[in-house]
Every structure is written in structure tokens, then in C-alpha cells.
Structure prediction request, 1076 residues.
Amino acid sequence: MSKMIYADNAATTQVSQRVLQKMLPWLGQHYGNPSSIYGIGREARAAIEEARSQVAQAIGANPSEIFFTSCGTEADNWAIKGLAHTLGPKGKRHIITSAIEHHAVLHTCKALEKEGFSVTYLPVDRYGLVSPGDVEKAISRETALVSVMFANNEIGTIQPVAEIGAICRKAGVPFHTDAVQAAGHLPIDVEAMNIDLLSLSAHKFHGPKGIGVLYIRKGVPFPTVFMDGGGQERGRRAGTENVAGIVGLGEALTEALEDLPEKTARVTAMRDRLISELTKLPKSHLNGHPTRRLPGSCNISFEGVEGESLLLLLDNHDICASSGSACTSGSLDPSHVLLAIGLPHEIAHGSLRLTLGDLNTPDEVEEIIRTVPQVVERLRAMSPVWEKIKDE
Amino acid sequence: MSKMIYADNAATTQVSQRVLQKMLPWLGQHYGNPSSIYGIGREARAAIEEARSQVAQAIGANPSEIFFTSCGTEADNWAIKGLAHTLGPKGKRHIITSAIEHHAVLHTCKALEKEGFSVTYLPVDRYGLVSPGDVEKAISRETALVSVMFANNEIGTIQPVAEIGAICRKAGVPFHTDAVQAAGHLPIDVEAMNIDLLSLSAHKFHGPKGIGVLYIRKGVPFPTVFMDGGGQERGRRAGTENVAGIVGLGEALTEALEDLPEKTARVTAMRDRLISELTKLPKSHLNGHPTRRLPGSCNISFEGVEGESLLLLLDNHDICASSGSACTSGSLDPSHVLLAIGLPHEIAHGSLRLTLGDLNTPDEVEEIIRTVPQVVERLRAMSPVWEKIKDE
Amino acid sequence: MMYSEKVLDHFTNPRNVGELPDANGVGEVGNAKCGDIMKMYLKIEGGVITDVRFKTFGCGAAIATSSMATEMVKGKTVEEALQLSNKAVMEALDGLPPVKVHCSVLAEQAVRAALSDYYTRQGIDPEPIVGKIQEVDHDHEGSCGI
Amino acid sequence: MMYSEKVLDHFTNPRNVGELPDANGVGEVGNAKCGDIMKMYLKIEGGVITDVRFKTFGCGAAIATSSMATEMVKGKTVEEALQLSNKAVMEALDGLPPVKVHCSVLAEQAVRAALSDYYTRQGIDPEPIVGKIQEVDHDHEGSCGI
Ligand SMILES: Cc1ncc(COP(=O)(O)O)c(C=O)c1O
Ligand SMILES: Cc1ncc(COP(=O)(O)O)c(C=O)c1O
Prediction:
């Protein structure tokens, strides 16, 4: 496994050594329940509060505005269902989101549609950008919230979050952003960006899986409780706290933001080389915005090949990557994101997502640049589709 | 901390070494996302499926009936809200539960009451037992589900789960049991006991915090999805899987059930000695059933003292315990469980919960037996309440 | 919920705990149902509190605030003791968790109840001086909110 | 979703991949929108399939089932080839994940489409023999369910 090249950092990341070391005591001798009054309980409570402060500081919030959840998905569910249920009874039964959200947002909105809420799915342009003007036009007196993701997990496009935040603030509509792909990778300031609710998930920035955060600005209508039960998280999110996970999240976010400009520059350079080399292949296209994209995110369609088989062959070369082909997920339709930016189905099926992180090296990038064309050519050679389009 | 005596195993338990060792690779090199197609993704998927089989085997279920959640609380929320939302639209808008459930169940039921569901909170006798006859009488054609806990977290009373299960089966009403305190400590067989849904949580049996399970019998109406999003857990519970937690849960449950009769005998003997010695103190009473109780669970009220101060003094003696006094939780009312079994408020405030586990030793028990009376006497000496009642 | 070092110290080593047989002002406040009863004994000579004791049934904060209150009134004149506020007790303890603030109110009330008893014993109507005290109620059915 | 060793082998080393210039039965099924197109070339001599090739655009299972299907019909009579079922292809591959079963159906259909073409070239109406084949459709707008 030593020579494995991991280029799927948008799917998940490796827990950093520093984070793991900080977590271990809480999986060992320091096992107290944070609600307990005695020593090892109080210690656990203090560790959680330290992590809460770390998160608050990372996004410019107050610790009392940070709530730990079990993942990014839970944060999204809580924010959107919670606000809908708080404001729905007050006649606000309309939600605005975008067509390219993660399923944690889209399927949550679908569930609310079944409850009678109406949802506007804003279109995006061919780069995957939501237009702030569209948000403004969509807002009505019935709008309970706007939820637009910070950056897209498939194509990496970074939304004009601050502009959308300003519009929502002016309209008095709470603004939620799914920052699961952005947190730890892009600077976030909930004040400057007028963000009212924000979701993040530790495993996307070298923290553990199964722990997330919902930031809820003081003063915005509070989302109804999603997880009912004990008094944890000041009575807002029940369940015995995942202490090790929380400690890991706090440390991972802190570590991720250290030297961020340096890391960003390094990762961006690798990404840009990947993009410029791989798009040299005939009939290949970059998906997403050429510059307003996540530092590590590269998504390219290769006409005439299908994504899953591309991934399997890359796996044979010890390269871990992902695709917008739905084959991997079992559905037969390709990614809703690629369709939303206007790709025809057959091209969407042939997309390759390579997402780099700060642990990747230029050598690995060169290896990817050598391997991908071989693999694409091999599949094209056996593709009846390529046979037809290659000379078009 | 070496001499600390941990007697709060109902609050949480230490992760076992064997469990931690099995978890570590999944926090290290084996960090793949289980949805990914390449090697480290497939490995993670296989590890999850192994854990699913472990859980299934432990409770006599099929792996396809096991769904991982972020904690016991989530399992309870999903089971109860989910079934209510599946069956409510079919005219079944009534829920039966008991007065002594954990808040994860009670507050979930309260939330459903706000949505218009009606809830029957069955009373319990002075030992904390629900009467199966009461369940039978409470069932109507509108009943969507019955939820009665397997064993109580405060007083340890074990419910007649199989009898209740049989009644629900006959009536065709789904039966959910919160087995968070029972799993890993009592034999559970969902077939023999006619259990349709069951919640459990790893940190109560030497697994990690922040991971639980909901068992859902094949064929019972499926609870609506609680966590909407990606296709994880066969589309039923979204969110990137907490692989390390899931692996830890499976291993912990397996380990807990190894040599269970031997461990139960050992823990029960320690518990019984604790009970017989501590109830020798004047005006002290055992709470819960004398024999139908969790092996490690001891709950005693000492009149004239208040629980939190008892805990703090015990903490000064390095003994970790818990209490039914609400002071610890910030509310001013004592535990709803102690009130439900008929304790007057002032006596309920003076209850001490000591919950032993298989890591406790007879020496520790003797130390507790030496210390508790000292501490009780010290508090009674300064108690204006004791002054009045001591000679009654 | 976390207690300050000071609270834990006063809880673990409470000052002036016990009874005072020759007390000439005794007050008891709180409610067993709510889990807190404080009884305060004052010995007042020439308008000065020369000795003080307390007994408390209650949580750590209840014991610590009682203890701190006794320290704060000992050696003080009756007029000074009447100025004792729950805020001052809390500050002297380096704060209390929000859910425990009511304990400091109880401690203030216990001192006032004892002073009230002292005035009554002197044949003076305490109410204009001390204000109304919520008497201890061992069987009351009301709420526990203070 | 996990592939068997056999599937991965046939995907990684597909048998009989390519075109067959002298094929006398060629069929293409599937739909680029759905992400799967299979093209099957048969050379049939004296009622026996003496050579076979395929080209596939599709996922791992699509390639593996095509490859397996070519192996299973090679050397067989036309009648035997007509008996090839998707189940047999699946079993030969030690199973497929449930979401990939449609690929084995597609492989079966590809063989039938090629046989259908063979009959047509012989001047025989294929439908009574082969049944109806869903032709390849590069621009269809319908659903991808098979
Ligand atoms: C009976 C019971 N149910 C539910 C829970 C909740 O479990 P968790 O803390 O894992 O959410 C607990 C313990 O906290 C419990 O004792
Ligand atoms: C944009 C986005 N939102 C939400 C999620 C869900 O996060 P989690 O898997 O932690 O629930 C993900 C990743 O899976 C994501 O990329």
C-alpha cells in the first residue's frame, strides 16, 4: 500500500498523526461521560469546550454558537428541517437551495416537500455557479431559509457565499451553507460572509469520520431540536458526546488552518498541472470553474469512456479516484451536478474526479499524469462509443 | 488516577483494549471511504459488514436488519419518529411507552405530541415494572407502536420484554425496545422476545462513544428515514460511516457476550454485597427490583442527604458514582424514574447510583462499602432535614 | 457544569458548620422537595454578629454558599449583614454555574431569616427592616423556582 | 458494492475484446445515456460460432459480462448460444452486486442482437427465433431501467 496514490480527498482524508494523538486519551483512560460530576467527567467536559472554542475561532463565531453533530449530513438535516419546522408554523413554508447541493441537502429538501414545503432549486451556470441575483429574485415573504453550499464536492466550484449572505441578511432570511468541502480548506468568516448556519464535517480535513458541527448564529430563529433526548449540547442536541471525535475535530480544524496560504498554494499548483496536462487528451473537458474552485479539486470528462471502469483501472495502478458516474452509486443516472452544469448524460458518465490534498506530492501528480492517458486510451480502444465520435 | 474506583458503568464504560486495537487501523492507514470503489474503500466496506454480522449474531437478527446510527439516542429518535411518520398518515397516531423511559424516548414522544400524536405513558409499580396487562389494555386500533425499555438506566429494573413482545405481536403492533442498558449485559434474542425494533449504544459495553445501532425487523413497517442524504446503510441512514466506531461497536458487543454467564455471576455477587451492606445504614432504601435488575446496578436512597453533595464527597474519595438528584442535571426536580416508582421528592433527592462492571473488583466494592457510610454520616451531621427525621 | 476551586473548597471544608445552642437569631429557608434547605444560627451581641453556624441539606453549591455566607457575616454588624447580597456571595466564590445561582439566593435568604428571627425576639417587627422571607416549607406543593 | 474476483479478472483482462472484420453477425445494445453500450461481433460457420469479439462502453460489470458472454458462446452452436441467459453469465462470474444485474441482461441481449443480425443476413426473419431486441439508442430520452 506504500505506493498508493490517494487522490480522493473530497471523499475523505486520513486522520493526521497530531489529531490521532490528541484523540487517543479519550479512547483510553479518560473515558468519563462529560455529563458526570466527578473528575474524569469534568475533564471530558473541558476537552469538549476546548474543541468548541477551536471551531468557533476557526470560523469567527462564538463558542456558544457551535453544536457538535454526528456528521455533516446531520448538520444539514438539522439546519434545514429544524428551521423549516421552526418557521413553517409561522407561514414560512418555502425553501431556496441550488440544484447542485449534496444529497444531504437535496434529499432533506425532498423530505420537506413531502411535508408540504415548497422548494426552489436554483439553476447554476456551466461552471456550477449560483447567481446571487437568482437568490434575490427567489426570496419571497414565505421563504424560511436559503441553503447554498460553500463549495461543491464534485466539481469544486466555490459559490459567491458572501454575496448570497448579504442578500439574505438584507431580506431577513436565514442563510445556511453546507461548508463540508470548504471548512479547513478555504478561509471562512461567518461575520464577514453573513452566514447564519454552517455545516462542516471533520473527516474532510484530516479529522475522524462520524463527527460534524452545525454553527447557529445567535439571534437567528433556532432550528427545532433534531435529536431529542438528554440535555447534552445545552439541551439542543442529545446523545452522549463522542468525546474523542469532538476533540479530533477541533484539533483537525486548527491544524488545517495553520499555514493555510502555503498549503493552498502548493495544492493549487499541483491541481493546475493536473488540469492542464489531462485536458490535453483529445475530447476531454474540465468540469467546474477554471479558477473559482477548491484548491485540490480537478474534475475532467473523457468522452467515450465510462467513469467506473476508469476508476477500476486506476485502482489497478494504485490510484484512488472518484467519478461522477452513477454506476458507483448503483443508480443509473450520472451525477446531478454534472447534468446541472449542462453535460449530456453520455459525457457525464465519463467524468473523473481527482481531489488532491496537502499530503499529495508533485511526484504523485506526475504519476497520475502518466497513468490516466494510458487508461483512457485503453478504454477508448474497446469503446463502441469512441469508435463513433473519435473523428467527429 | 490509579486508585480511582469507577462505579458509574451505566453512564459510560472504558473502551476495552481489544476493541481499541481493532479500531486503530481505521483511524490510521485504512482511512478509505466505504463508498469508494478502490482498495481502501472496499476494505472499509468489508469491515463494516463484518461488524454488522457481529451485531446481528449477538441479538439473533439478520445482518440486513442492522443499521448503524450515531448513538442510542439517534436509534430511539429514528425508531419512534420514523414509525410514527410511516404509520401516522395511515391513521395510527397513538404511541405507548412507559413513564420511566430514558429522555431519548420520552422527549421524542413529547416532540411527537406537539405534532398531534397522542402518547400513553404507562405507570410502573414500586419496583419500576411495567405491567404487560397495562400494555394490552392501552393498545387500540390507532396504536402505531409500543416502546418499552429493556432495562432501566437509573434503577436497573428489567422489564418483562418477552411478554410485552408477545402481546404486541398478537395485536399486530410494532414493538420497539431501548436496550441501551441491556445490550452486552443481558442475553437478547429478538426472535424469542418478539422484538421488532431495538436500540443499542456501544459506549455502554466497552465500545466507543458516538456509535449505536437500530435493529429493524424485516417485514415491520419501515420507519421513515431520519437522516436524509447519501445512500449509506442501503439508503436508510445517510452520512459517511464512522468506520472505526462501527468496527469498535461490533467487536465490543462480541467481546461483551463472551463468558457472559461468568461475568454476570461475578458482577451480581459484587452488586448484592453492595446492596446488602449499604442498606444497613438507617433510613436507607434500595430502589428498583431486588432481583429483576441489571447485574451491576445498585440504587439506594439515603434520607436526609442530597445526591449531588454525596457524589462530590465520593469524588473526593476517588469514587465515581451518579445520583437521581436533578441537581447534577441543572433541573430542580429529581429523577422522573424515582418519582414514578413513588419516591417522595425529598427522598428521591438523596439517591445514589452505583453501577458496577466486569472491571470492578471485590476490593473496590469493600472500599465503597467503607466510604459511603462515612460520607452519608458526614452529610447527615450537617443536614437540618436529618436532624428532624433521624428519630422518627 | 463546573464548580470553581473556591466552591469546591467551601464544599469540602465548610466553615462554621453545626448548631449554636446560644444563638439568638435562627432562620431556615428552602424546601426539601427542591433539594435545598439551609438553617442559619446567629449569635448577636451589641448589634454585632459574634458567632454563626449553619446546617444545610443540599447540593455542593448550597453547602458552599452557606459556608461562604457565614464567613461574610461573622464579625459584621446587623446592618452590614442585611446588605449581604447573593451576588456578593457568588462573587466571593468566584462564580457559580447558572443553574446554581438559586443557591446563592437561598444563602442570602437564610441570613435574612435569621436576622428576622433576631428582631422578632427583640420585640421588633422585622418586616419593615428585613423584608418578607419565604419561610421553609417541608411539604409545599409549589414549584421549585426561586 | 463489491465485485467478485472473477468479475475483476474479466474486467482487467477482458477476453475477445476488439472488432471482427469478417463477422457475419453484429449486434449493439444499450444506451450511452445510461452509461452502457455493448457491441458484439460473431463469426458463424456451419451453425457454429467460430469466433467472437466485443466492444463495450460501460462500467466494470458491463465489460466483465461482455467478456464472459463471449467466452460462453465461443465454439457453441447458434442454438446453444440462443440459450445463453443473463443468469448463466452472472453465475459464471460468481455473482454480481444487485445494482449491476442489468449488465448481465445487456450481455445476453448483445448476443441475441448479433444472432438476430446473423439471421437477417441469412434472409431469415429473426423475430420468431430470437425474440424482440431493444436496439441501441444513442439519443433516447427514456429511462435507463432495463
Ligand atoms: C436507557 C438509555 N437509553 C438511551 C441512552 C442514550 O444513549 P446515547 O447516549 O448513546 O445516545 C442511554 C444512555 O445515555 C440510556 O441509558
Ligand atoms: C458537500 C457535502 N455535504 C455534506 C456531506 C456529508 O458529510 P458527512 O459524510 O460527514 O455526513 C459531504 C460529504 O460526504 C459533502 O461533500
Notes: The domain at 5-130 of chain D is CATH 3.90.1010.10 (Sufe protein. Chain: A). Confidence is low (pLDDT under 50) at residues 138-146 of chain D. The beta strands of chain D are 25-31, 36-45, 48-57.
